[in-house]
Amino acid sequence: MFDNSSLNLRTFVLTGIPGMEEKNALMAFLLFVLCVFILLGNSLILFVIKIDQSLHEPMYIFLSILACSDLGLSMSTLPTMLQVYWSNSKEITFSACLAQMFFIHAFQWLESGTLVAMAFDRVVAIREPLRYRTLFPNTIVAKIGITAAVRCICVCFPAPLLIKRLRFCRSNILSYSFCFHPDVMKLSCVDIKVNILYGLIVMIFTLGFDVAFILVSYIMILKTVLGIASHQERLKTFSTCISHMCAILIFYVPIISICLLQRYGKHLSPLVHMLMANVYIVVPPLLNPIVYGMKTQQIRHRICNFFPRKQIRIRF
């Protein structure tokens, strides 16, 4: 038995992909390439929105918040993941683990809140197109953004405190290459009912509320779109939601999957848990800029202007 100070106040050990230790160099290279694409993609989205005055609209302001949350989530996790695979340095101090845990969950719920705000924006834009700017001024956008940030801080602040009160006397080896609240609390040798209750309340009142709000929003959008007489107008109106719908699937499918794996997938291979955890961390920040860059006409045209095609004239 280890006492509280021997583990709780020193280090945890992160884990790479089980059974593939000989391929750590390849994993490190792939992670590094993905990290570069994530940084470039989200930074480009932010740069385009900043310099183009026509994009200073609520939808694009929320998109910039989404890009910031993706960058924050990536910068909170990818350095330690690279450290595990590149240099095989797997130890992380207890304080650093708590900080990483807080930022992972904070940026996760900030992204969820932003997707809710974007759904609300689409409802107002489609149902009240003539009064959209009156009903949705930038002051309202700022208040929504601040509310989403305050919510994620309030929701995530108890997690490190609840972990800090635990004693760890079994093992300090984590299941992932980053610190995740359900993973860390399982290592405790004392009662974790408070931590489980906290996680359940957070999932119900954040993830549950957000998903329900988005579903209701799209039911309202669908009713409005189906009420439009012209088939082409229906397609044109609904096409403004395609990017947002893709972002919803990209974010919520991995997070719901990893939550279900934590609860019901204990019998599955550790490789399945690790791969889903990596998808949960890497895929949303990687795909969101691609989706919005390809599906949003204004952003696509602005990005294309940065790379003008050179006309090559052939003289005979």
TrEMBL record:
UniProt keyword annotation of Transmembrane present: yes
Record key words, sorted: Membrane, Olfaction, Sensory transduction, Transducer, Transmembrane, Transmembrane helix
Subcellular location: Membrane
Gene3D superfamilies named in the record: Rhodopsin 7-helix transmembrane proteins
GO molecular function: G protein-coupled receptor activity; olfactory receptor activity
Alphabetized CDD domains for the sequence: 7tmA_OR51-like
Domain of life where this protein originates: Eukaryota
InterPro entries: GPCR_Rhodpsn, GPCR_Rhodpsn_7TM, Olfact_rcpt, OR51/52/56-like
Name the UniProt record assigns to this protein: LOW QUALITY PROTEIN: olfactory receptor 51H1-like
Source species: Pantherophis guttatus (Corn snake)
Gene (name only): LOC117664307
